[in-house]
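DM from R.C. (forwarded with permission)

"hey, sorry to bug you on a friday — could you get me a structure for this? deadline for the figure draft is monday and I only need the backbone to look sensible"
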Amino acid sequence: MTGKVFLIGAGPGDPELLTLRAMRMLQEADVVVYDRLVSPEILALAPAGVQMVPVGKSPDNHPVPQERINEILAELALDGQTVARLKGGDPLIFGRGSEEAAHLQANGIIVEYAPGITAAQGAAAASGVPLTHRGLATGVRYVTGHRQANGMLDLDWKSLASEETTLVVYMGVANIGQIAMRLVAEGLSETTPVMAIANATTPRENRLFSRLGQVAIDVRDAGLKAPVLFVIGQVVTLCEEWPAAATDLIHAVEATAAGQRAHA
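My reply, with the result:
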């Protein structure tokens, strides 16, 4: 008999953020195929004795190419096994879960999903920074700050440079300088608040607060390493850790700009 594959969102790292559906699927697995960003705490929840297959990738280091991952999943399922495919965050948000599902379904393999808490939601919960807030952000957008083979970012910078929107950048630590520069060039203020959060929701979590015009230097000086998520927008000022001096500076700049517009 052909087995099946569970595409499981492992969330941002804290095992308490796993869904009940994800836990059930993990416990039913004969083999677990997992990514690099799945936390050790969640891997420890796998049933004793199941086969564990690491297929993680890191920047510029893909020991198991995506095409081979697709094949591994299919081979295990066609061998009659129930496969738990553990992916950090949500498998359908920058997780390439849909690519894996398409390959499996083309081979007649049943695929079931367990949605996961994506990194942006985990970071918001851990830091107290809301992704939307009345008067500060009417919407939120998720973008990836990395392209395959280190290609140029081809984002719609003009639409992203919105003062009324919270911008969340995944996988952007290597390109945050370019991202900040392009957003400022499209009109977003250099004083726009930014939170960089590494390993959100885990015991290894590390946060950095900065402004758009300074964030690339601050991230470099702090030595933040992937996985790092960037939250860009006025909602960052609602965090208790946001420096009051930086908030005062933003308010002063905005007041000055408003005065200049009034006298124009």
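R.C.: lifesaver. The two ends are 76 Å apart (CA to CA).
me: no worries. The chain has two domains: 4-117, 120-263.
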